[in-house]
Design brief:
With 254 residues, the chain is an alpha/beta fold. Helices cover 35% and strands 23% of the residues. The structure holds adenosine-5'-triphosphate (ATP).
Length: 254
């Protein structure tokens, strides 16, 4: 059974159709990249998948059950790490939030926090406050907080969009490693075509202003580049260049 199904989901916001009927499924352990022009509904699609937005038509199911609201089984990483982390809590304190919310007993929290901090390479920074960390490290704290939650689904909304190119590439590689080690299922929104292909098992391309002839779902492209991937050879691989060219056209760059 798919972990997530969009069953002809339509979404209207502010009296406008943002998402025209959209159907796709996500299997456990898949990494789905979502790409499209600004305002085409990428965040809205993530929010619907997380139960924050109710479809005006169709339904979203998780493990075969129609979702009716938010769940602890879904964790969110936002682009704006500065606002996602509480500045008055240390790194450990921020991660503890997810465990407190999930009702994990105090005696079990410390071990889970050190495990996720180890996983994201921040064990030495547990007692620091977010402002004492670089942007990339703060983003890793957000990711660690999500991992501590042990979610079924990880939603990432342009998580690396505010980082410099080198930090972004190293976090992409770290994320790929985590996904493979932990068998995570991820929906990852990005503006960056190369990032979408580099990370994804599939790329979903959305278009703005859908019509019956040109629905929101412009394309779903399988990415067959083998793992492990690396920034140099993967991006020269024919299975990288082909979807890059196809998606470039789908996104209206003809
Ligand atoms: N609560 C809302 N009420 C009305 N309109 C909304 C609401 N939320 C989003 N929209 C509109 O829906 C459209 C899609 O927004 P969304 O944030 O999903 O796009 P996006 O593809 O993620 O954009 P970006 O790439 O710029 O982040 C936009 O035109 C936005 O203005």
């Amino acid at each position: 059974m798919p972990i997530l199904s969009f069953n002809d989901v339509t979404i209207h916001l502010g009296g406008r159709e943002i998402l025209s009927p959209t159907r796709f499924e996500v299997e456990k352990g898949e990494f789905i990249s979502i790409i499209g022009p600004s305002g085409c509904g990428k965040t809205t699609l993530l929010r619907a998948a997380a139960g924050f937005v109710t479809p005006s038509g169709g339904s979203v199911s998780r493990q075969g059950k129609v979702i009716t609201g938010p769940s602890r089984e879904v964790a969110f990483v936002f682009q704006d790490y500065g606002r996602a982390l509480l500045p008055w809590r240390t790194v450990e304190g921020n991660i503890s939030l997810a465990l407190e919310a999930a009702g994990v007993p105090a005696g079990q929290r410390a071990a889970r926090i050190s495990k996720v901090l180890e996983t994201v390479g921040l064990a030495a920074h547990a007692g620091k406050f977010p402002t004492q960390l670089s942007g990339g490290m703060q983003q890793r704290v957000q990711i660690a907080r999500c991992l501590a939650q042990e979610p079924e689904l990880l939603m990432m909304d342009e998580p690396f969009g505010a980082l410099d190119a080198m930090t972004r590439e190293s976090l992409q590689d770290e994320l790929l490693r985590l996904v493979r080690e932990q068998g995570l299922t991820v929906l990852f929104v990005t503006h960056d075509l190369e990032e979408a292909i580099y990370l994804g098992d599939r790329v979903i391309a959305l278009r703005s202003n859908p019509t019956p002839q040109q629905p929101s779902l412009a394309a779903v492209i399988d990415v067959t580049i083998p793992h492990p991937r690396d920034q140099l050879s993967t991006k020269e691989h024919p299975d990288f260049l082909r979807p890059r060219r196809d998606l470039y056209h789908y996104l209206g760059h003809d």
